[in-house]
Structures are given as structure tokens and as C-alpha cells.
Amino acid sequence: MSTFTPILLITFNRPEHTRRTIDALRVQHPPLVYVFQDGPRQNNESDREKCRQVRQVIEDSVDWPCELHTSFSEVNRGCRDAIIFAITEVLKLHESVIVVEDDIITSPAFYTYMCKALEHYKDRKTVFSISGHSHSPNRFQVPTDYPYDVYASPRLFNWGWGTWRDRWEQTDWSMSYYEGFMKHPYERQAFNRGGDDMVPMLVDEKEGRSSAWDIQFAFAHFRNHAVSIVPCVSYTHNIGMDGSGTHCQPSAVGSFDYSLLNQNDCPVFLDNLYFDSRIINLLYSAFARKKRPKWQKLVNFVARKLGMEPPFAIKKRVYAEC
Fold first, then answer.
1. 254 near 238, Cβ under 8 Å?
2. Bigger pLDDT: 304 vs 60
3. pTM, whole model, 2 decimals?
4. 67-103: string of b/e by CB count within 10 Å (b at 16+)?
5. What residues form DSSP beta bridges with 152?
């Protein structure tokens, strides 16, 4: 069996997006590629034709020397279950995987960065995932004096990412924890450390209003006191924010300069894992639906003046490893 870390490309019915994604991957020449395609929805001839076109794109475009494995389903599992199935199947064969969906443009340094990060953190069991994506500097910017090229995040970013079999297997897809978790407000507050949309996304998933998978994997991070490693500058860009995907509704993304993607294939990794309070606060603010109440800020201010631990502050060091 190949010892290379595989790229898993997950596709459905977007031939042009798929072609552009593969064009970006071709620059990197990943030597081991799996392609999983979900099947067309029932009685949907448009899906059937577009799925056929995607298969043709794969046949024509994956043209560099590599070990290619394809799985084309005739059954539509849906966005959530198709992705879980694909990742689980590849991780039956490999210890780790790099996942790219069919609307993700990757930089020429993406594959090298991901392989190095997966190798660097493979024995750090409190790292559950490696992200290749980081948000636009217009929304979120790491402080300029931060000394590393990656940071520890309580939030998973899945626009080009990777994980390991032993971490993935710790996800409870049945959500058996849900009732107990929802009874504890402090646990909910802690889970929302990555943004106050985290718990609502989990509720939407449980109550059937969402077909996402990533919020459940994010909860596995939380439940196991684990983090995701995120680059300070993004190695990926999502071209699917045009209404063409299940969870990619139209947005004013505008044009994107692909030269802005991270070209660093020798990043400085963070070894002493901790949450940097500045980054976590910036991250929280980027995803917060509402600002922290002024009374909480006042309580924090008074607590600091009195030499006490501010009760509503995000702790700088959540845990550390020897």
C-alpha cells in the first residue's frame, strides 16, 4: 500500500467547479488521489447529466502521474452522509487523509503544507484536525507580532483540511451526548468559544434543519479537549459561494487574487499548544452574531482591577502539553 498521504476529492454535480479544483491540484502533483462522487438525486435528470459531466472531467483532468482511485455512487446519500462515507472509507485504508471538496482552490504549497502538518502533529493526540483555510484579512487578521505560521483554534475550518483515523473515529455521529450537553449552560458557553454560532449549528443538525457534518466533528474536538491547527494565511479559497452548493449560498465574494494564497511550504509550527487570547477573541468576534454585553465587559474590568480572574474572559492558556 502507498505510504503517501492521500488527497480525497469529494464531488457531486458541478463539473466546472470540479475542473478548476483539479487544475489547482495538478500544480502540486499529489501522488495518491481518491475521488468520491455522490449519486444523482432521485428522478433528477439534470443531476444525472451533470454527474456524468463531472466523471468526464475527472477522467480528462487527473492527467498527472498518480495512483488514482474512483468511487462513483449511483445512490444519492446527501451532502452530510456522502462526505462522512467518503472520509471513513479512505481512512479504513490510510492513517490520515487530506480532504478537498469540489469548490476549493488550493495554492501550490497546499499539499506540502498539509503533509508536513499531519506528520508534525500526528502524535499530538489533542490535535484533531489540520486546516488549510484561514479567513480573509478583511474579516480576521492574526496579530503581526505572532511568532508562528499556524495557531490553535477551537473551531474547525473545512475548506481544504486533514485529519487522522484515530481522531475521526472519536466522532459520535449519533449525537448521544446531545441531551446531557444541552442541560449544561457552562458547557454550551465553552463550546461557543469558537463563535456563538457553534451551539445553534449543533441544534440545527440535531433537529434536522441542517445536513452538515462538520459541526459534529467540531464537537468531537470540544469533547476531547482538542484543537484544530489553522494557518495564519490561507492556503485555500472557496469558489462555491455562488449558490451552486448545498451550504454555499450566494454572497458578495467578488473577484479573488489567487496570488494572495499562502505559498509557504516550510511553516513554523506551534509546539506548545495553547489558545492565544488575542487570536481567540478576534476569531470569536469574526463569527459572533452579537457582541459581548457591556455588563460582562464591566465585570471583567472590575475583576482585573481587584486582581481576580475575569469570569467572562477567554483564557489564554487552556491546556499545555509537555
1. no
2. 60
3. 0.88
4. eeeeeebeebeebbebbbbbbeebbeebebbbbbbbb
5. 229
